[in-house]
Write a structure and sequence with these properties.
It is a single chain. This protein has 72 residues and is α+β, with helices and mostly antiparallel strands. It has one domain (3-64): Metal Transport, Frataxin, Chain A, CATH 3.30.920.30. Helix content is 29%, strand content 31%. It has a three-stranded antiparallel β-sheet. The longest helix has 11 residues, at 51-61. It is globular and about 30 Å long.
Length: 72
């Protein structure tokens, strides 16, 4: 999955871009009644997300891992 796909999943699930500094974008959303901040550091949106980075984004978002699978 590339960064563009990750951002699409976040936006589809109610996250909005809160702020940006350089390549670090901070998305804000509410999941399960709790405010969540997710940091996405994408220099290019077409770059593939490394597995550890994707796991961190999933943890920060509080969304189910299945939403971030390829083809979703």
């Amino acid at each position: 999955m590339n960064f563009r796909g990750v951002i699409e999943v976040l936006v589809r699930n109610g996250f909005q871009l809160a702020r940006q500094k350089g390549s670090h974008r901070i998305y804000k959303g509410v999941v399960g009644g709790q405010m969540r901040l997710v940091v996405v550091s994408a220099h290019r949106e077409s770059d593939d997300v490394k597995p550890g980075t994707l796991a961190s984004i999933v943890r920060q978002s509080g969304l189910p891992k299945r939403l971030f699978r390829l083809g979703s």
